[in-house]
Amino acid sequence: MNRNIFALAALAVLVFSLAGNPSYSRDEVWDPTDFSYIADWTDVPFGNIILVADVKGIEEIAYNQGFITGARTIQDAIDMSIPGDTIVVTSGFWAPFEINNGVRDIDLIGIDATLYTEDELATIVTISDTEGIGLYYFNMYHEAPDTCAAGCVYISSSNDITIQGCDISGSGFYGIQLYDSYKIDVLDNWIYNCSDHALSSYGNSYYRPLIRVMDNYFWDNGVLIPDWSDDAFNEDEIRELNYFEAPFD
Predict the structure, then answer these.
(1) Are 196 and 169 in contact (CB under 8 A)?
(2) Which residues have a Cβ under 8 Å from the Cβ of 151 and sit 6 or more positions away?
(3) What number is the average pLDDT over the span 137-158?
(4) How far apart are CA 39 and CA 185, in angstroms?
(5) I need a surface site. Which of 7, 78, 197, 247 has the fewest CB within 10 A?
């Protein structure tokens, strides 16, 4: 689907203004079952959204607020999705997940959502045998980057995949790895502290013109692309179209 979906700053301004106003308290303005703020973060109509929140009874709560339904885990939301759905994941720490088994043409948007694992052998996001997947604005990291033997995002036998606006870090092996996949967009991400390498691919050499890596920040990775990776990536072009320092002082 690859829709460009941009979070708005209006909600943050509102929250900070209320926090600084002594006439309001957190208890007065915060309701953990009120998800109306989602409208400020995405232009997707509620009727196309599956809401993920770790709230008891979220299915009914979400439906009553105009969403398709709700789910308490990302994997449950993926498994119930149909082409055209958008999954919005609310703030919190969330387990790794897989997109496969015929699931296609969905977007996932994180709102202060962190994908996290302590399992040294677990890949955080696995996308395989599918098409039309967008992954936007997630934080993802491993707890033990120096000892883990897995990566953050693994894409296999898939096409039309977008990874955009994500914070990808702390992998002991790779940040993003491709296998036999094409029409891949890696855009506007932070990819860092991946102790072996940031990007890799195999089985992809003939797809090289169909893989875009642009406007990302890379820093503190073992290497950008390992020697054993095939030539699906144009390293000179990547170095020209991306940044190689932390985006802050």
Answers:
(1) no
(2) 123, 124, 171, 173, 174, 175, 176, 177, 194
(3) 85
(4) 26
(5) 247
Tokens of 63: 């439906």
Question: In the chain, what is the greatest distance between 2 CA atoms, to the nearest angstrom?
Answer: 62
Question: Which is it for strands 49-52 and 151-156: parallel, antiparallel or unpaired?
Answer: unpaired
- Confidence category of residue 11, pLDDT binned at 50, 70, 90: very low
Higher pLDDT, 209 or 90: 90
Count other C-beta atoms under 10 Å from residue 21's C-beta.
10
Residue type for position 59: E
Q: Are 211 and 230 in contact (CB under 8 A)?
A: no
Asked if pLDDT for residue 6 goes beyond 60, the answer is no
Going along the chain from its start, the domains and CATH numbers come out as 38-241 (2.160.20)
Q: Which of 191, 189, 181, 136 is nearest to 160 (CA)?
A: 181
